[in-house]
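Convert to structure. Protein one:
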Amino acid sequence: MALTRISSGDFMGAAGFIVLAGVFDVLDGAVARLTKSTSEFGGELDSLCDAVSFGVAPAFLLYKVYFETQGDFGVVLASLPALAGVLRLARFNVQSAGSTDKRYFRGMPIPAGALTILSYTLFYHTGSQSYILPDAWKPLAITLITLCVAGIMVSTVKYDAVPTPSGKVIRERPVVMSYFFLGVIIAIASKGALLFPFMLSYILIGLVRSAINFFQTYNDIEEDTIEEDEADPFEV
């Protein structure tokens, strides 16, 4: 439905269907666990649905909004989020089999990539917030957003998973739960206009945390490799 809306130029209508797919993406796992019907087949099917809803549809939106005017090169650029999303889903399926920590993802999850593309394209490239960027900057901005989203999805940067609301999760991860709850409130209150800044904050939090962890690990390695000074035999 999102693809047909994009084809007819109804971009906001398409966004509504993509967001609806996100709602079902959150609910399907919960329903499967509730009915004790989780399976490897269901996990693979979920990834295929994600690839279309959050990979192909946003990529097609990028193409129709701007990259259609850029010829074959525009086709390649617009397809990058879909290609990166599929690659990320395949990697996730392989790695999640032996993973016990469900609190984090390696690389930004594909629904977050879709929301970033939707919120920028519909409100900042066109739409109510388009006045913020000069028209001359918009081609560069949408290209950078496309490249960044694709790159971060296939990166190894650690991102928080959306926690399932429960008393246990609220007690164990109050900051993360409050952050996502605040994001929902901001998106609803602004009718989507402030969703893109929130998604930028999500991206930056992951990048900053990854940079801090990298430098901490680097310093620890350096400290381990520094040879201790030999003791002076004449010192008492």
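Protein two, convert as well:
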Amino acid sequence: MPRTPDTRAHAPETLEGWYVHHQLFSIVPTGQSGDVHLGEDAARVNSTRSDRAELTQPDAGWSLYARVIGSEADVMVVHFRPTLDGIGDAQLAFRRLPIAQRLRSVYSFLSVTEAGLYHLTAKLAREAAERGGAVGDEQYTAELARRSATERDSAHVQRRLYPTLPDGMPYVCFYPMNKKRETGQNWYTLSLDERSRLMHEHGLTGRKYAGRVVQVISGAVGFDAWEWGVTLFTKDPLDFKKLVSEMRFDEASSKYAEFGVFYVGRVASLEQIEQLVETPGS
């Protein structure tokens, strides 16, 4: 007799890479103080510590700076690091820079780069049901470990987990998002097969923009009030509008997505950000 399909709402397996910390700041007008107050001791530390080196080590992650446009924020700083402690070190290194005295925190978001294995998890769950087993049993766990390792080693997943700053794409957009948990629209009560189908459809829309938009997805469950962060890079900022508009018509978004504030700007060097912050009258 055929086994009844498992329709329970199993969590999908995920692969994680670098930790990510988005920080948004507004520039405090000349003559006022920001959130960070450096005393004489801290100022002396500034002249001896290699804080700038800490922020620019490519083999240990990297940091992104951007001038934010059209927002209460003026500056966005994004740190990518292999460990959570590394994020803390980068955060402190930035706070020790002299420009930190002129910056006031507007928003921050802590997460980790993520690749969701919806399709793989759903497939393994079906295979477990067909053989009379269950999700989480010994055979399921062993097969999951094997196939997850193969997924992690793929070039596509490596780019998602350990992103680099795209060449020729100077515009950046960041926003947090959730999946709805409302009566009649609860993403977390859908079966794994249904969520896998919806995410596949959602992904097909994103593929239309391959080569035009680079997307970094980071998971924040347990780290932030929002569940995911989305960071986009493009050559033409109108692509942000077109991509997000089209994706909102996918069922995964139209029925189940909630979006936070969008921050848009242009990537800059740390030196350019320092010049922006230190310009008299800013």
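The CA atoms of residues 26 and 274 lie 13 Å apart. DSSP finds ten helices and eleven strands in the chain.
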